[in-house]
């Protein structure tokens, strides 16, 4: 079996998250996701007895789950969090979950899976850890996020240094996630997007927020040399020229991708077989059906 490419330095990611926690995290994205996750769970008419919170920074999601779930197990790769988060904390990397098959009724993850090297493999592990008819619900940073910063850095490095180095993570595209859920064995997969534009006084303010999210560059192929002052200055100029509003504040786009799926169960709704519909599309739309060679009337 081919090994997945190593995109992220997972050890560095853990160190960056620990630093962010010490600095005082910038939590506005996580707060938004936590509120949305709570709302999405509120419409699921199910009682969940045992849930896993997979890699979510902080305890906001866990506190939401404790109001609707019997028992919550937090999964985080930093063993020092056990003292902070309690005895129901499992020190494990998301790429090597230590659970037997069919343990959980519910698995959630908020803003963690975008930094997994082997996302298809991790989704398969999550699927196996769910009981039949168990729910998986997750939010991760998606494809077009931080496109402004990516463009500004690439242009500045090309001008100042004669070439660009990888600085912004290659976030997964929403169109790929539905297929990944199906390949992992989930039933009734659903994906959707929440786009958020945040305005900052300067690109430096954005970079400070990313540091306090633990989301600065942790790519395995990142350039190890320090960022040149001239490159940083030119990046800020390009960012302001291309992505500033009339008041001088700059825009940063965040794309939050939601995905959900169910562990298969015989009682779940099944998609209709082709040709088995009871009503023609033309009848449903109140239009006259015509053959492919007949022109529609205006």
Describe, in plain words, how this protein is organized in 3D:
With 298 residues, the chain is α/β, with parallel strands linked by helices. The chain has one domain (10-145, 169-208, 251-285): Rossmann fold (3-Layer(aba) Sandwich). Helix content is 36%, strand content 21%. It has ten helices and seven strands. It has helices at residues 10-23, 28-42, 60-65, 81-85, 119-129, 147-161, 174-183, 203-212, 229-243, 281-285; strands at 48-54, 69-76, 89-91, 104-110, 130-141, 187-200, 250-262. The protein has a seven-stranded mixed beta sheet, with helices on both faces. The longest helix has 15 residues, at 28-42. It is elongated, with a radius of gyration of 22 Å. The model is unreliable at 289-298 (pLDDT under 50).
The low-confidence runs, each spanning 5 or more residues with pLDDT under 50, are 289-298
Q: What is the C-level CATH assignment?
A: Alpha Beta
CATH topology: Rossmann fold
Q: In DSSP terms, counting alpha (H) and pi (I) runs of 4 or more, how many helices?
A: 10
What percent of residues are in strands?
15-25%
- What would CATH call the homologous superfamily? Vaccinia Virus protein VP39
Q: Radius of gyration over alpha carbons?
A: 22 Å
- Broad shape: elongated
The helix content is 25-40%
User: Quick check: average pLDDT?
Assistant: 84
């Amino acid at each position: 079996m081919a090994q997945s490419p190593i995109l992220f330095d997972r050890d560095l990611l853990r160190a960056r998250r620990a630093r962010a926690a010490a600095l005082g995290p910038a939590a506005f994205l996580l707060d938004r996701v936590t509120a949305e996750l709570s709302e999405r769970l509120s419409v699921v008419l199910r009682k969940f007895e045992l849930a896993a919170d997979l890699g979510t920074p902080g305890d906001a999601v866990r506190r939401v789950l404790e109001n609707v779930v019997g028992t919550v197990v937090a999964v985080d790769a930093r063993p020092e969090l056990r003292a902070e988060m309690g005895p129901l904390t499992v020190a494990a990397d998301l790429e090597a979950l230590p659970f037997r098959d069919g343990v959980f009724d519910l698995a959630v993850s908020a803003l963690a899976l975008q930094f997994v090297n082997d996302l298809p493999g991790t989704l398969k592990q999550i699927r196996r850890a769910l009981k039949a008819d168990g729910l998986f619900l997750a939010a991760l940073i998606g494809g077009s996020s931080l496109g402004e910063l990516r463009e500004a850095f690439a242009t500045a490095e090309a001008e100042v240094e004669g070439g660009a180095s990888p600085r912004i993570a290659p976030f997964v595209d929403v169109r790929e996630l539905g297929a990944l859920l199906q390949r992992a064995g989930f039933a009734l997969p659903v994906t959707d997007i929440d786009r958020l534009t945040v305005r900052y006084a300067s690109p430096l303010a954005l970079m400070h927020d990313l540091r306090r999210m633990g989301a600065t560059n942790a790519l395995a192929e990142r350039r190890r040399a320090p960022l040149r002052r001239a490159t940083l200055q030119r990046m800020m100029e390009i960012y302001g020229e291309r992505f500033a509003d009339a008041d001088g504040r700059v825009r940063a786009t965040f794309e939050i991708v939601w995905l959900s799926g169910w562990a298969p169960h015989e009682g779940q709704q099944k998609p209709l077989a082709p040709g088995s519909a009871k009503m023609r599309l033309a009848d449903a739309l109140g239009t006259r059906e015509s053959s492919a060679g007949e022109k529609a009337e205006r």
